[in-house]
Amino acid sequence: MFSYYGSKSKIVDYYPPPKHKRIIEPFAGSARYSLKYWQNDVLLVDKYETIAKLWQWLQCCNKNDILKLPKLKKGDDVRLLNLTQEEKWLLGFSCQAGISAPANMTSALGEQNSKTFLKNIAENLHKIKHWEIKHGSYEDIENTEATWFIDPPYQFGGHSYKESNKNIEFDKLAEWCRTRNGQAIVCENTKADWLPFKPVVEFTGTVKLKTTEAIWSNIPTNYDCEQILLQF
Ligand SMILES: C[S@@+](CC[C@H](N)C(=O)[O-])C[C@H]1O[C@@H](n2cnc3c(N)ncnc32)[C@H](O)[C@@H]1O
Asked: Which ligand 1 atom lies nearest to the CA of residue 9?
């Protein structure tokens, strides 16, 4: 729906499909995995209140609520527009690319985005009407049988979120991931050491940083079979 730092938009197709009807994204952000499998029974949770409230507001919007919003031009300051807080948050995420909180000033890319951004959202609103969306922390979620798509801030690199890696105890999170009921899919990059992650794909993120995305799952995946170097 909206651009977000660390979003899985470019690589969502690399992850295993859900084995359960219920999908839980405990670190929701822009929830690209759930949007791909939107017909499932989705629960989003994020500790950053702006993200949770933005999703909850989008859920109540109709097409016209979105299409009536102004198209931004380079240099426009979102704070000066006569809009509600949620409307400003939405435009704030569109006015620059790949940001971890709504911005105020519109960049050239933001102006370019605004041509398609609102139309795309309006066309996708029907996908989220049946979702459950909560503000909270991952530890608060009941451990029900589900596909758990777990994408926390990176252990190395996830410092720029409002709710960042500095408040995450990765040993505790590892144990929590290992004890999920159902299918757990955990995202990281190959620098992380809190679970035995396997490389997935090299990826240039929204701020032009190259990382190798990695996965851990409690169910075998295609990424488990690493090439073994044979030495004679
Ligand atoms: C890497 S982003 C998720 C990106 C998402 N998969 C996407 O496609 O956009 C991580 C998210 O975790 C959230 N977060 C950080 N600490 C959290 C916590 N303890 N519980 C729940 N969410 C948290 C951040 O606010 C951020 O939105």
From this structure: 8
